[in-house]
TrEMBL record:
This is Hpt domain-containing protein. Keywords: Phosphoprotein. InterPro entries: HPT_dom_sf, Sig_transdc_His_kin_Hpt_dom. It comes from Flavivirga jejuensis. It comes from the Bacteria.
Length: 106
């Protein structure tokens, strides 16, 4: 499985350390909340709302350089819109765990 990284954030921030730290801070603050809402909606089988949660999480997936995971999330988002949650559900859960572990190290 691909590993999250800060390459995109490094490119965006250039030599601006304050900007880089601000970006990381925002992701670390927003990600756990967005992830929790996603799991709540999945548990309640609110697939449309869960698809919107996945859409929001995709931005963080992209920012952390997870290109293949972004594709999985896109497919999963579309499946959720069609009231199906089983196809990529476990893979998406692993992606979120991988991101959580990475963010915990920052």
């Amino acid at each position: 499985m691909e590993q999250p990284n800060l390459s995109y954030i490094d490119t965006l921030s250039g030599d601006d350390k304050a900007f880089k730290e601000k970006m990381i801070s925002i992701i670390k603050a927003e990600f756990p909340e967005e992830k929790a809402v996603y799991f709540k909606n999945i548990e309640a089988k609110n697939f449309n709302e869960a698809s919107e949660n996945v859409h929001k999480l995709k931005h963080k997936i992209s920012i952390l350089g997870l290109e293949k995971s972004y594709e999985v999330a896109t497919d999963y988002e579309n499946n959720l819109k069609n009231n199906h949650d089983d196809a990529e559900k476990e893979t998406f859960k692993i992606i979120l765990e991988n991101m959580t572990n990475f963010l915990d190290t920052l």
